[in-house]
Amino acid sequence: MELRSDMTVKLMKHNARDADVATAARVSTIGAESMEPGKPVEGLINYLMRDRHGSPFEHNSLTFYIEAPVMVAREFMRHRAGWSYNEESGRYRELQPVFYTPDHSRPLVQVGRPGAYLFEPGSPAQQRLVTREFRSAYLWAYEHYTLMLSRGIAREVARSVLPVGIYTSFYATCNARSLMHFLSLRTRDEKSAFPSFPQREIEMVAQAMENKFRTLMPITHEAFARNGRVAP
User: Which residues of the sequence carry a binding annotation for dUMP (predicted)?
Assistant: First the structure.
């Protein structure tokens, strides 16, 4: 059994440039002339972001490969507009014993009421408890999973005993507009116009994705940050 506390995010392919946002926007006013190179980009992108003209940000794509616990994948797939997914299937392959365990940087104790709560680190005893109980539960569940497989039980039936802490892998494809909406909800940032309360594990994935986005489309990312991290 392998215990992990990290997330894997790989940018597999992309067609994402700042210039394409400006070109898509200009077709509204100048038609075919929008394809001529050398036209300014930064001011137009900031205007589009500020006034929430969103469709020009959809003419691009980014495809990520992600390894994360099932609980993160299920949160991910709440995001449907502008996203496409394909996930590893426990119906077709035997799932491997790779499980998530929080490391010492992960706060453990929720303080406050829903909608206005914080997380605190927890005591050393609580940290030891989490590590011990996670490992024990994972060992028990995976032992019974493999036992059922060895007795001829179908994979799609046996997988039901596995916990949401087991790692899964999936492809996620989005455009810049849908990615910015995801980032506005799944990261905390002091520049945000609205508060967000992401679970730490999906925030780890979101932060890695944002780093790729910032590199590919720096002008768009800067406009996103400057205008309150609100998707147009």
Answer: 75-78, 87-91, 159, 186
